Amino acid sequence: QVQLVESGGGLVQAGGSLRLSCTASGSIININTMGWHRQAPGKQRELVAGFTNGGNTKYVDSVKGRFTISRDNAKNTIYLQMNSLKPGDTAVYYCRVVLTRGLFDYQYWGQGTQVTVSS
């Protein structure tokens, strides 16, 4: 079993910054991908930033140049540094990990952390 614990959300004014953390514990082997998703009220969940299984990073266009994803393998933790926040970034942010076991991929989600950006 895998557990993901997120932290770092909160309320910030437009233009401010927050850093989210997601720490994984449990049977963490054969990580395929890791990343951050978000879901705003009335909208579908979307990928914000992530690591591909080749170790590259990818971002949704709306956050490029403002958000940076990073990781500390020794701590099984990924981070999302969010700068120049906008009200449109308001959402619940979720950490997601995909593990490959044999022929199958298994995904795990964190509980979510609320990010609210006021104008």
Question: What does this protein look like?
Answer:
The protein is an all-beta fold and about 120 residues long. About 0% of the residues lie in helices and about 60% in strands. The protein has no helices and eleven strands. It has strands at about 1-5, 10-15, 20-25, 30-40, 45-50, 55-60, 65-70, 75-80, 90-100, 105-110, 115-119. The strands form two sheets. Strands 2, 4, 5, 6, 9, 10 and 11 form a seven-stranded mixed sheet that branches. It starts with a strand and ends with a strand.
What does the secondary structure layout of this molecule look like, with pairings?
Elements: E1 2-7, E2 10-13, E3 18-26, E4 31-39, E5 46-51, E6 57-59, E7 67-72, E8 77-82, E9 91-101, E10 104-109, E11 113-118
Parallel strand pairs: 2-11
Antiparallel strand pairs: 1-3, 3-8, 4-5, 4-9, 5-6, 7-8, 9-10, 9-11
Average pLDDT over all residues: 94
Distance between the termini: 40 Å
Helix count, per DSSP? 0
> Major beta sheet, specifics?
7 strands, mixed
* Helix/strand order, N-terminal first: EEEEEEEEEEE
Which word captures the global form?
elongated
Q: Which secondary-structure class do the elements indicate?
A: mainly beta
Number of strands: 11
Helicity, as a percent range? under 10%
Radius of gyration equals 14 Å
**Strand percentage:** over 45%
Give the uncertain stretches in residue-range form.
none
